[in-house]
Amino acid sequence: MTIFKFEKLVEFTSTILEKAGLESEKAKIASGIIVTADAMGHNTHGIAFLPIYIKALKEGVMNPNGQPEVLKDTGPILAWQGKRLSGIWLLDTALKLAAKRAKKFGLCTITIQEAHHTGCLAAFLPQITEQDLLVKIAVSGPSGKNVVPFGGKTPVLTPNPMAVGIPTNGTPILIDMSCSITSNTMAMKLREENKKFPGKWAQDADGVATDDPLALLNGGSHLMLGGKEYGHKGFALSLMIEAYTQGLAGYGRADKPTGSQGNVFIQIIDPEAFAGVDAFKRQTSHLVKACLESDPVDPDRPVRLPGSSAMKGLIDAKQNGVKLSKAIVAKLETLAEEFNVALEG
Fold this sequence. Notes:
345 residues; alpha+beta; three-stranded antiparallel sheet
């Protein structure tokens, strides 16, 4: 592992993205989220994606400049056409706007058609929960087909991640999960390391469950959360997310889109508009305390709430630096040489 100062890494990432053609403001915002993902421990969706974003900019797959088209704006509800702009920038911009609108209207919902890759959803949550706002994000890829519906053999869906940020009187609850058990990024990482999935998380082209990432990458497909036995639950969640991200956006699989793009659903709720922030956090904090006090099955592995280690990692990274693997550092060194940018630790 190599340690890099948080701000230096953000600056490096921003400079690389800008030199690759991404508009300066977009590069700065995107780099902050990218580095935050690694700081929170989500290293498959952080800096590891930087070469992919560079390739997308070079090939014109990601639109480097401009603003989303506003299709509808009623105040608390907005619909955007994302024009395949940086998905990270679009999502960050939409969340900031939704937070302002939620404080005015009590809640705000935004849908985005055709955003480029949105990165790690968990990395967006702290900026909203620290405002004592409740946030939900969902993403799907209308042109993607690598996840099978429960009981099926032909891929129809994408992993369809969702994230929820819940304020408490202490560390917020940060939920980041997909409707499939694993992802292509994880499969590629395991392939590079010559490792297997911890369980039968995928199925091969014949529909047989497997722990081999190569089977997934060579014509296989992702299994729904719950696997062969309980995947109907992941399937139900996936259908719900596609309804939110594609149905409400009015654009999706029915339009047979192609290329790299995704749809986004955002909703931010201000608890003050209901029973009040204090009442809300009293309930969520009580719930947290009760869960943490539950007697553990294994004393060495007590109950841990979603996002607690991610928040700890983020705080530590900003104070002591971001830890990156040799494989990721090697990718950064290649980019540093290509764009003539110093990579400082």
